[in-house]
Amino acid sequence: MIAQLIFIIILGVAxxxxxxxxxxxxxxxxxxxxxxxxxxxxxxxxxxxKIALGQTKMVxxxxxxxxxxxxxxxxxxxxxxxxxxMIDGVFGSHRIFAHPLGGLYGxxxxxxxxxxxxxxxxxxxxxxxxxxxxLKRFTGAEMTQWPKSDANYILITEILLMTAFLTxxxxxxxxxxxxxxxxxTAGSFPVSSLLAPLLPGSASxxxxxxxxxxxxxxxxxxxxxNYLPYSKHFHILLAFPNTYYxxxxxxxxxxxxxxxxxxxxxxLDPSFVPENTGEPARFGAKDxxxxxxxxxxxxxxxxxxxxxxxxxxxxITGKLLSPRKIMMDTRDRITEIxxxxxxxxxxxxxxxALLDNYITREELWACTxxxxxxxxxxxxxxxxxxxxxxRRYIVMEESQAPAxxxxxxxxxxxxxxxxxxxxxxxxxxxxx
Amino acid sequence: MSxxxxxxxxxxAAQGKEPEILFWxxxxxxxxERARKIxxxxxxxxxxxxxxxxxxxxxxxxxxxxxxRAGNEFLFQMQAMMNIQVLDxxxxxxxxxGCPHCFNTIKNEYPGLGGNYEVIHHxxxxxxxxxxxxxxxxxxxxxxxxxxxxxDPCYLGRGNDVYExxxxxxxxxxxxxVEMKRCKSNGLCCGAGGAQMFKEPEPGKxxxxxxxxxxxxxAKAQVVAAACPFCMTMLTDGVKNQxxxxxxxxxxxxxxxxxxNGL
Lengths: 432, 263
Description:
The complex is a heterodimer of chains A (432) and B (263).
Chain A: H1 2-29, H2 41-53, H3 62-91, H4 98-101, H5 103-131, H6 145-177, H7 192-195, H8 203-227, H9 235-244, H10 258-268, H11 293-301, H12 307-311, H13 313-316, H14 323-344, H15 354-357, H16 361-365, H17 372-376, H18 383-397, H19 403-415
Helix pairs in contact in A: 1-8, 1-14, 2-9, 3-5, 5-6, 6-8, 9-11, 11-14, 14-18
Chain B: H1 9-14, E1 21-24, H2 27-31, H3 33-49, E2 53-54, H4 65-69, H5 73-89, E3 94-97, H6 100-109, E4 118-121, H7 122-131, E5 147-150, H8 164-171, E6 176-178, H9 208-218, E7 223-226, H10 229-241, E8 249-252, H11 253-260
């Protein structure tokens, strides 16, 4: 009875804090500007099913794809087991699904165990890739202390959780063989039964092992749940809405800024009266709150896998730009703004911004807008949109474009071509 | 190219005629020496198959693409709205471009400003003509036995998912079409897009076109086919930089088509 009470309290506290942190992230995302991503719902569901659920963009890197698939499928399916643990924890029962499911239960437990082994394998391979092989993709200037250790914490936690799960089953299996107490014969234990010989023989020691692992497993999961909002691992939740709200237009299509359209129309036609759009907006983005909520959602979805950076032509040739860093900076900055709001109220202004404090101009001007990063992202994140918005701010609000680009602007404006040729010579090619 | 007369929209309009298609030449196609050859080749193809077409000539203006990618939305929209006025003034419905940047901008970004046209890239035009049997790759230069590779321009490939049309133009040649290790949606940028053409690159280990030429060399290609005037400049410079001018030729899909058909 006391165990049940403790379990319910832990569960309640875990859910409360998780809910609180998720709602903070939601609030932070909604600090972004509005953009309409609700058209063509049927297509959006399809994109989500293909890319988030079906993992179709992962396959370009087969090793990572297979390993990630093990963890992903393991995570989803082992949740059925977690459901049983929750129910057992609240009602003080033991393996409550065993009786009603009968033979199917054994099949399920067997499946979970196989998945647990696959998850373990994948986590070990992933740890090796990061810490032994030192894959280039996982290094890079932005992969500093926290992003590096975050990845390792996640993998080690998963290994511990799976080990606890298998050890728990092994102890349970042994107790079943002893026909001890409420440990009725249930489930098949294809993997953990192999571990059983390693465990002590006495029933009391087995009960302790089983209980310790049970508590470690479920409390570990609840702790991990609360770690998610602080970690890149949050992608397991946001990958779904993020792909649902994907950009459905051709990648080459950039947004046309409506505020500019009004001004240009007024310039070309003095009688034009623009619709009143409320407060005058800033052109482009200086800080994260000038970006759209979708840009910010993408920042929280980013897994820092570096596929974007590894295909970026600027990055490949040694320039400062890394699309992954653009996303990580955006997340760090919006989190900072969120923390400021929590501490000092919603009108608090620090004197920082995404531009210059996080992202340098050199990074922004190195982009060729080739869309390789957008194509490479397994969850449809678009770093290019953020880069473009920041260029817009630099050019239209600050007039701080590089001199050579200002020359180009001048030529386009005066001669109708980016080079310094006369408009009258434009048709000379026909006479050659 | 004295043998053909390039029709302009203004002349057509004066005669009360409306051509089937407008050939949007673009700034590079009008002023860049190398690209002008490609422009004339596209005209030769149009002439050869008897499509009624015209160009805007001195009435054409920059689409605003480099301004937009560099962040100058004002300048882009000014250009776009002026161009839309001219295009609508001639009641233009269908446009072919020789440049993926013009293609992308007019096709994707002009509709939001009121300019709605059916826009195709010249490689799509060529693919259509091959499918209709109007271009056969006969009677001209033989590319037999040559190793040809195709460099995907970002704004045609990833930007608009046009991967097959340019390849179709190469597949009918009797050649060995080889793909570079980075091709199609994995293609590597030439380094000129996003207004990079008009500025010095940021400091780094090397230039992007040099990185790209390494792929061409690795594929052992004798011809690298381009479909964008900016890629043409960058690839040509890259080949020169590596002293491979004798071994590797950079040719646009339109040039290859013209040569193969003896136009």
